[in-house]
Each structure stands twice: as C-alpha cells, then as structure tokens.
Amino acid sequence: MKAFKDNVQKFFSLVQHYQFVDAVDKFYDENIISTDNNDEPVKGKENFKNRVSHFVGNTEMEKLEMLSSMIGDDLSAAHWHYVFTNKMYGKMDYKQISVQRWKDGKIVQENHFYNLGY
C-alpha cells in the first residue's frame, strides 16, 4: 500500500504544479477512460493526452489547490479548487472532485465532477 500511496502522491504533485501532460505520460494507462460529469468519455491515452494538451495550450492557470484527498485500495480521489482563464470559456473559478481507479500503477479510469454554474 505504501508504494501505491507514494505513486498517487507523485501524481497529485504533478497536477498541483500544472504538469498535466507529464502526469498523463507517467501515470495513465494506454486504455484510460476519462469522463467529465456526464459528457461522453474520452477513451485511450493518445486521445486523452490530446485533450489535456489542448486545455494546457489554451489556458492560463492562476490557482490550483488541493482541498482534500483520499487514497484507498487501487482508488484515489481529490477535491480541487481551480482558477484559470481559458480562451474558449473565459475566467473560471470552480471546485472539482476527481476520482481515479488504478491498476498496475496506472490510472485506468478517471471521473471528474464539477458544476460550472451554466
């Protein structure tokens, strides 16, 4: 469990330091399935990495704070506070819960839950 917890903490650290693409490269499985709220899931590491790269390329981060986290058997979750300006969406300030299911040291499923007030 300690090795898993250390791995998750390294993942969380990359996210906290806006190193989203590095996090994808190091911690996501080739067959990742990632879903935002009820949107269609993004399937496959390359598709997911393209989405993350597009977000990073069009976003100026102002703040990313982890409010809390949990780590269990092959499961991690974090409550984040994001503040950023995105070229498509403008300034965003919201809280998000992200849950990851892990297998063999890689994230195989991830779900993000947030309300943007639309």
Features of the shown structure:
alpha+beta; 118 residues; single chain; six-stranded mixed beta sheet; Nuclear Transport Factor 2, Chain: A
Write the layout of secondary structure elements.
Blueprint: H1 2-16, H2 20-27, E1 28-36, E2 42-43, H3 45-57, E3 59-72, E4 75-86, E5 90-103, E6 106-114
Parallel strand pairs: 1-6
Antiparallel strand pairs: 1-2, 3-4, 4-5, 5-6
Helix pairs in contact: 1-2, 2-3
Describe this structure in words.
The chain is α+β, with helices and mostly antiparallel strands. The chain has a single domain, classed as Nuclear Transport Factor 2, Chain: A. The protein contains three helices and six strands. A six-stranded mixed beta sheet has the order 2-1-6-5-4-3. Helix 1 runs antiparallel to helix 2 (20-27) and helix 2 packs antiparallel against helix 3. The N and C termini lie far apart (40 Å). The model has no long low-confidence stretch (mean pLDDT 95).
**How widely separated are the two ends?**
40 Å
Per DSSP E runs of 2 or more residues, the count of β-strands stands at: 6
Number of helices: 3
Residue stretches low in confidence (pLDDT < 50, at least 5 long) are none
Helix content: 25-40%
Which structural category do the helix and sheet elements fall into?
A: alpha+beta
Strand content: over 45%
What is the CATH level 1 assignment?
Alpha Beta
Q: What topology, given as strand order, has the largest sheet? A: 2-1-6-5-4-3
Integer average pLDDT = 95
Gyration radius (Cα, Å) is 14 Å
Q: What is the third-level CATH name, the topology?
A: Nuclear Transport Factor 2, Chain: A
